[in-house]
């Protein structure tokens, strides 16, 4: 059996660290200071982790490129401006 190289050991350690980080919302909150704000509850973090996993699972199944994570607010603003333009053109 061949021994692992230094690069392989570091890659395995990074993978283990990422898996532990997304295993529970508490782990993510402990690692990143910006998640310790009162407005961000554990349910929001859990939903974000679940969406992250689902995006990569769909990528592996379907294979339509790497998942792009966009903000919903941006999409809502585009729809809002499109609706206001339609109303102006109708009047």
Q: N-to-C SSE series? A: HHHH
Structural class of the helices, strands and pairings?
mainly alpha
Q: Alpha-carbon distance between the termini? A: 77 Å
Annotation field: number of helices: 4
Tally of extended strands? 0
Shape: flat
Specify the biggest β-sheet. Answer: none
Word description of this protein:
By secondary structure, this protein is mainly alpha-helical. It has a domain at 6-66. Helices cover 69% and strands 0% of the residues. The chain has four helices and no strands. Helix 2 crosses helix 3 (42-62). The longest helix has 21 residues, at 42-62. The protein is flat, with a radius of gyration of 20 Å. The N and C termini lie far apart (77 Å).
Main features:
4 helices; mainly alpha; flat
Give the helix/strand layout:
Blueprint: H1 6-21, H2 25-31, H3 42-62, H4 72-90
Helix pairs in contact: 2-3
Brief synopsis:
The chain is mostly helical and 91 residues long. Helices cover 69% and strands 0% of the residues.
């Amino acid at each position: 059996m061949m021994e692992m190289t230094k690069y392989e050991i570091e890659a395995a350690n990074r993978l283990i660290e990422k898996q532990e980080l997304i295993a529970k919302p508490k782990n993510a909150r402990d690692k990143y200071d910006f998640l310790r704000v009162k407005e961000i509850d554990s349910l929001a973090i859990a939903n974000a982790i679940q969406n992250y996993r689902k995006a990569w699972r769909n990528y592996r199944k379907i294979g339509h490129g790497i998942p792009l994570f966009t903000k919903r607010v941006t999409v809502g603003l585009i729809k809002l401006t499109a609706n206001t333009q339609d109303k102006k053109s109708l009047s």
